[in-house]
Amino acid sequence: MTTKPGRYYSGSSNYSPLVGNTAAFYSNNELEQYDDHARKAYGVPTAAGEHPLNTYSQDRQGDLTYDNLTSLKGPLPQRPRKSGWSRRRKCVVFGGVALLLVIIIAVVAGVVVSLQHKGTSKPFSFTLSNAQVTNDTSFALGGATRNSPTNINDGIGTGTDAYTYYQGVAANFPDASKWVSFTDLWTANQESFKKSCKQNKHGPNNSDKMIQEIYDAIQNRSSASLVDHRFILAIILQESGGCPRAGTTTSSGGVTNPGLMQSHDGHEYNAAHSADSILAMIQDGTQGTANGDGLVQNMNMYGSPYSAARGYNSGYIPTSGNLSEAAGATACYVSDVANRLTGWVWAENKCTGGSG
């Protein structure tokens, strides 16, 4: 009879192979050791040169079967279990750890996105103004116009890049007929729009999109207010160099002056609402705020654009009528604005009263 490797048979066709927690799951070496032990303990003879697992004799006493093996004293030998975790336990544990890591990453990512959103979603709102210039003198002297702002080729062209120190009363300043066209004033000062923010340490420079938003806002508020778009542009260049991020100053009386036109308690730049905040800043400077006057109110009060500029910068005009007096603000302010309107860009500033 041929014995199957690693399996225990009694040798007789009348006997069944060991099953269950039995010799069927033991190595030949383990069974040999157990068989020898059992035969010695219970007096079962073993033929010389033969092993009871591999031979069978009908008349031999003590052939082992599943029944008489299990009748022996003591339990059958147990196969030692392997140490360590089962595959199922590993899957459960490591799967749980992986799931926990995914949850933690998702929560952290959610917090980061929330903080980023919080930093860029500051609420912003404003109401469009309908304030307009109504003083006929302003239309006669310049600064106000009923012409469409779409006419960007108004004026004398490029003018001259030179600086003349203007001082005294409004009549000493250049007539509006000497102003350059809007398109030439805009084009000549593109370098300022592109670089003034960093140069003045106000943060990142304007993007092309922001520059276009400034252009559109000037045209929009010029049409609504009847203030000449060239006058609005010259004030923007004087106040901030065309940088929406220009720092906010605060007066001793608590008045804040933010943004493009350093308006009276006006709006600041909001990156999450760039176009709207730029429009709001230009509206504040052009048409005024709830707390302070803009160009419209000053032109309605004084008539002359240069007097309006002095009033915008200082809050009033000195009793002498001398627009070169600082009047608590910047002495060269009106002279600088007049020169910008006539083509000054890079030439040396010859004002002796202090520019700003």
Short description:
It is built from twelve helices and two strands; from the N terminus they run ααααααααββαααα. It is an all-alpha fold.
- How many discrete domains? 3
Number of helices: 12
* Strand neighbour order, sheet with most strands: 1-2
Helix content: 40-55%
Low-confidence stretches: 1-26, 51-62, 113-120
Oligomer: single chain
Radius of gyration: 49 Å
Number of DSSP-assigned strands: 2
Alpha-beta content class = mainly alpha
Assign an overall shape. elongated
Rounded to the nearest angstrom, the distance between the terminal CA atoms is: 116 Å
Secondary-structure element series:
HHHHHHHHEEHHHH
Major sheet characteristics: 2 strands, antiparallel
Mean of residue pLDDT?
A: 81
Structure overview:
- Helix 7 runs parallel beside helix 9 (274-287), helix 10 packs across helix 11 and helix 11 (305-314) crosses helix 12.
- The chain has helices at 28-42, 66-70, 87-120, 136-141, 182-188, 190-199, 208-225, 229-240, 274-287, 295-302, 305-314, 333-341, and strands spanning 249-250, 256-257.
- The chain is elongated, with a radius of gyration of 49 Å.
- The longest helix is centred in the N-terminal third of the chain and has 34 residues, at 87-120.
- With 356 residues, the protein is mainly α.
- It starts with 27 loop residues before the first helix and ends in a 15-residue tail after the last helix.
